[in-house]
Amino acid sequence: MSDADSDSIPEFFIPLTENHPEAIFSDGGALVVVGDLDCYGEVELPPWELARAIEIKHHDSRRRFLAGRRLIRGTVAPLIGVRPDLVPLAIADTGKPYLTDGAEGSVRVPYLALAHSGDLVVTLLSTEECGIDLERGHRRGPGHGYDRCLDPVRLSERFFSQEESLFLAQLDKRSREESFFTLWTCREAAIKADGRGLAALLSSTRVRSEHLTNDSDARGDVMAIPVQIGGDTWQALPWRMHGRYHAAIAFKDLPHVIHWRDLR
Question: Theoretical Cys-Cys bridge with 99: which of 47, 103, 164, 186, CB 3.0 to 4.6 Å?
Fold first, then answer.
């Protein structure tokens, strides 16, 4: 896992250097795209999405909503050969985005996921069910605050399993915060992949503490963190980005290759 304030690409990502989308998904691969809130600013949205944005009263929330829709449409449109506003994007009652049957094109992208936090937005495209989460962490020191008061132990006692909460409580302050966000993003990425919604699955989701002590094996290869939701297990890959952003992606079975495109 990369350093918490680093811009390095995680070793399990392959930078996307050429525009051959058929190569991304032909062998069961996946694509992660990250951008700021102004990326794909030229992309037009359909009237129903613009109307929905107007209903969002909070300015920052509205910006993130619009940025997420533009990122998905701007990424998917060239893959299926349509204008961005014609991408057949729909949103489930649980908030999970999906492409309808009209998304057939030269490249089939049946599954996608979306997350945003702070000034960033990320999307994940895959040939299998998938989920992604993004959280901006707490920045320490005078003049570096995000106006976000974080108590990992208290939050874990409310939302996590007892095992997870006890694991966090025995860590030092810095490690506790880092591990909290690893837990949170892995759990939420898996819940998004499942698709039944946070409220329905939060209490039945858990990560065993032994999977949090090391994020790589003896060879230095990053290991997936298993997330259990009832009788199902999802494989989550967490990483960190500059600005104290924490992220994770989740799949039932890890893709053969995960491509990375950074639009910042």
Answer: 103
